[in-house]
Records
---
Amino acid sequence: MVKAYGGATILNERQEIGLAMNFGKYPVLWMEVGKPRAGWDPLTVYEGCKARIACQSGRYGNLIYTGTLSMYGDEQKDEVRTSPWLWDGIHLSSSCVCLSSEFGYSDVMEDLENAQSPMLETDQEVIVVMKDSNRKVCWVRKMKTTSHKDPHCQTMLKLVNFEE
């Protein structure tokens, strides 16, 4: 384990990466940092996997919300812009809802992806694999979720540097 610039915790040994990712102790998430999402100029939006959070609703009980791991590349400091494994501002963005009279293959596939996504809690340690598919490199980063979640905001849950 290495503490990098800005306090990021990077796992760099084969055994610690294996222990962190393979025994179910931590939810494992991924973020694509080599290809920004198309069509979002002037912001550079990077996205990753989906994850879920559970929130209590007075009217409906326990509800599950699904979001996408996201990050804005333009908000990064100049000294870390070329080092994606150090980027801050990783968060779970809420998904948009669009009602349609049709229900077909793509809806079922999206429901399947949502059902297989990890459940995140507040103040939870997580593993985030920052991958750059263009350069075929990746970094395994240990992070922590914040103590506040809000499914009614665009940013449902934030991830911060892990502090030992």
Note: The radius of gyration is 16 Å.
---
Amino acid sequence: MKYLVKYNESVETFDVDFAIAKIMEQFPFEKVKEMLDKEVLEWTPEDEDGSYYSEHSNGEAEDAIITHLVDWYSSKYPSSFSEENEEILRETIQSRYNFLNY
């Protein structure tokens, strides 16, 4: 089994299902929600309440989290990732982590 995992992780063609599985393994829903909550605080002025971001945002916090997940995957598996695949992966991340839609 150890060799099978190594073989599968060395695939040189992009597989969005493999990519999203690895991302979801490293970043479970709860962890991503916590990351989003912290990022929303970064985009909210200190003198405003929690509803400020939802009323005035353009999805900056969500985009920052998605970018972080894409960057993590591209650094971990650079041989199978290219710029052409980034948009496919971003859309898949948004569909799997539905709270990242903006």
Note: The two ends are 40 Å apart (CA to CA).
---
Amino acid sequence: MLNCMTKYAQEDTDKALDMCLVKSLFSANDFKSIPSSGAVIKENNNEVEIKSLGTPETQLMVNIKPNKSTIDVYQNLFKSK
């Protein structure tokens, strides 16, 4: 139930619980299938902090962009062999 309450709006989970009680459905799978069959999933607006991995030196390496060569450079390399 807690999983559904975090995934769906409270109104939808309340309706699902009411339906389960009215129809004598006592299975967690039955409860879970009711809101998932047509309820709108609640958006999670919490901002997530992204923690970088590695040391400051490795973080510098992430921002390095490689040099680019034109196709002519590669064609000349293959022609010379």
Note: The helical segments are 2-7, 10-22, 28-36, 56-62, 71-79.
